């Protein structure tokens, strides 16, 4: 009997449930969106892998695991599934995305050397007969080495900072409005974006629930009214009958 109610309730739930991967996933809020599969949208699109894992796809690079999102600090903590942060630093180009490294960046040159040089080579990028290092760009490239690339990254390689997630913190810029002229605009826009992407479906769901509730209440009242009027008619009928029965003897007297 409550079919419309159940239908809208499920609809409402699906609005609120669609914002995380599985039951244990991260809460996805504005400016991020969640879609079933990765697409080449370089913006704030996240997707799920193996139900629970929140992922981000960078065009021209690939996929990274989202470990946590701090909306207040505007910080996205990522993990490289291949456990090689310096491979990410070397290849991930953030210039066409809304992201940049959370930490202050400095220029480093990646060297690929055929024999070991001074310093620690990066284990996950080195192999038999080649040793990869990060050096300051001012360092003269030794004869046994080839400079791969100079990139702006938060950290050079250090065996002390070899934690897989260390350094893979990104921050993001909010899309700017044309007439924006200060922090107020940013705040206003953030609230507005938040409102449109998160609150509106929720409010719509609540309004629908309220409407369904109201319709059902009206239906019940209406049914009651019919019942009441039926009762009235019956009462009227019995009264008339009684009156007639009384009248008849009265008339006979
Ligand atoms: C997702 O998380 C739940 C609860 O921790 C776990 O039981 C389930 O195996 C996980 N699924 C995958 C695919 O990792
Ligand atoms: C370093 O050089 C070796 C041998 O030329 C090559 O196989 C390897 O892919 C290079 N590594 C990088 C990160 O460029
Ligand atoms: C990153 O991409 C931009 C635009 O495609 C390019 O201009 C820039 O040189 C790239 N940066 C690196 C370090 O490769």
TrEMBL record:
Membrane topology: Single-pass membrane protein
EC number(s) from the headed UniProt entry: 2.3.2.27
Domain Wall-associated receptor kinase galacturonan-binding: 20-79
UniProt entry keywords in alphabetical sequence: Membrane, Metal-binding, Signal, Transferase, Transmembrane, Transmembrane helix, Ubl conjugation pathway, Zinc, Zinc-finger
Main location: membrane
Molecular function, one GO term: polysaccharide binding
Assigned GO CC terms: membrane
Keyword Cell membrane applies: no
Cited Pfam families: GUB_WAK_bind (PF13947)
Superkingdom, taxonomy of origin: Eukaryota
Residues making up the signal peptide according to the UniProt record: 1-18
Pathway of action: Protein modification; protein ubiquitination
Record's catalysed reaction(s): S-ubiquitinyl-[E2 ubiquitin-conjugating enzyme]-L-cysteine + [acceptor protein]-L-lysine = [E2 ubiquitin-conjugating enzyme]-L-cysteine + N(6)-ubiquitinyl-[acceptor protein]-L-lysine
Localization per record: Membrane
PANTHER family referenced in this protein's UniProt entry, alphabetically: RING-TYPE E3 UBIQUITIN TRANSFERASE, RING/U-BOX SUPERFAMILY PROTEIN
Protein family membership: Belongs to the RING-type zinc finger family. ATL subfamily.
Name of this chain's protein: RING-type E3 ubiquitin transferase
């Amino acid at each position: 009997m409550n079919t419309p109610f159940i239908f809208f309730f499920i609809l409402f739930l699906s609005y609120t449930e669609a914002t995380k991967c599985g039951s244990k996933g991260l809460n996805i809020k504005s400016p991020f969106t969640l879609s079933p599969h990765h697409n080449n949208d370089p913006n704030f699109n996240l997707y799920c892998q193996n139900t629970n894992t929140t992922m981000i796809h960078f065009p021209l690079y690939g996929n990274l695991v989202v470990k946590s999102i701090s909306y207040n600090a505007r910080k996205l903590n990522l993990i490289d599934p291949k456990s090689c942060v310096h491979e990410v630093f070397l290849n991930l180009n953030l210039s066409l995305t809304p992201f940049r490294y959370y930490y202050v960046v400095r220029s480093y040159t990646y060297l690929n050397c055929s024999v070991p040089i001074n310093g620690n080579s990066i284990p996950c990028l080195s192999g038999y007969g080649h040793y990869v290092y990060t050096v300051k760009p001012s360092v003269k490239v030794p004869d046994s080495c080839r400079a791969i690339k100079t990139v702006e990254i938060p950290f050079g390689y250090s065996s002390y900072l070899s934690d897989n997630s260390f350094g893979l913190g990104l921050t993001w810029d909010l899309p700017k409005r044309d007439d924006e002229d200060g922090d107020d605009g940013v705040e206003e826009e953030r609230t507005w974006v938040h409102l449109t992407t998160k609150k509106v479906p929720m409010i719509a769901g609540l309004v629908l629930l309220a409407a369904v509730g109201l319709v059902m209440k009206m239906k019940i009242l209406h049914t009651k009214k019919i019942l009441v009027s039926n009762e009235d008619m019956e009462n009227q009928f019995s009264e008339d009958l009684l009156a007639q029965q009384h009248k008849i003897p009265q008339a006979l007297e």
